[in-house]
Design brief:
single chain, 250 residues, alpha/beta, 7-stranded mixed sheet
């Protein structure tokens, strides 16, 4: 288990107004059934993770980027994906066995460089995020000192069913109360530090950064994003993403 740390141990006081983003780009993408991790699958000739980094690097709302990939891919990603293309990428680091461990590795890299007022996490498999969405989320958090974080999300358009272990429907909740979480999810540095300074057993069980912050008492709000900001997990998503990219070029 990694030693726990307190936010006060970070390299410096948080830089006011600045936002650092951790790009979680580990995993092997088995649902794409390719011969390479999904983050390197081409979207109209450009690797997915490269498109993701480019979207963040070109956004004025983002000040610093750390990319987290599979440990064996660090050199490749640094040399072939990042190289000298992106001025805001300050580190490429190896991930862990679980997503949260990878995010923690990225956060520790940021801690060594220096704290920022805000820190966010973005999926490497969401290359279609727009700068205006990131800017809107950051502004919402900056405007409310009592908030610990904001999450880009879209309202659910589907009717949801809660079922028991045998699949029997036990409730049909009101659809309007449900949103589908996206990334980036952006937090105040101190609250994020508290959320991630927890035992491995706690981190291993989560798939969403906001839930960690919520569990430690942080207030988080949703900011409406775009359905285009999809997470690419299967071949159908690849086709949809390429259609969106082609339409944006027109």
């Amino acid at each position: 288990m990694s030693p726990r740390r307190d936010a006060s141990n970070d390299a410096s006081a948080p830089e006011p107004g600045r936002l650092a983003i951790i790009v979680a780009a580990g995993g092997h993408g088995v649902r794409l059934k390719g011969n390479q991790p999904k983050q390197y699958v081409d979207l109209l000739g450009v690797p997915m993770v490269q498109r993701t980094i480019a979207a963040l690097d070109s956004c004025k709302a983002v000040d610093r980027i750390v990319v987290v990939v599979n440990a064996e891919d660090v050199d490749y990603c640094h040399g072939e994906i990042v190289a000298e293309r992106f001025s805001k990428v300050v580190a490429v680091v190896g991930g862990g066995e679980e997503r949260a461990f990878s995010v923690r590795n990225g956060f520790n890299a940021l801690r060594r460089i220096g704290a920022t007022e805000f820190v966010g996490v973005h999926d490497g498999a969401r290359p279609l995020v727009r700068c205006e969405e990131i800017t809107r989320a950051r502004a919402r958090l900056a405007a409310a000192a009592t908030l610990a974080g904001v999450v880009l999300a879209v309202p659910s358009v589907d009717t949801l069913k809660r079922v028991d272990a045998k699949g029997l429907v036990v409730e049909t909740p009101e659809r309007g109360r449900f949103w589908r979480a996206q990334t980036p999810q952006i937090f105040r540095w101190e609250r994020f530090a508290v959320a991630y300074d927890q035992p491995d057993s706690v981190l291993a069980a989560v798939t969403d950064d906001s839930s960690l912050v919520e569990a430690t008492g942080g207030r988080v709000v949703v900011v409406e994003g775009s359905p285009d900001n999809l997470k690419i997990t299967d071949p159908g998503d690849v086709r949809a993403a390429e259609q969106i990219l082609a339409a944006r070029r027109r």
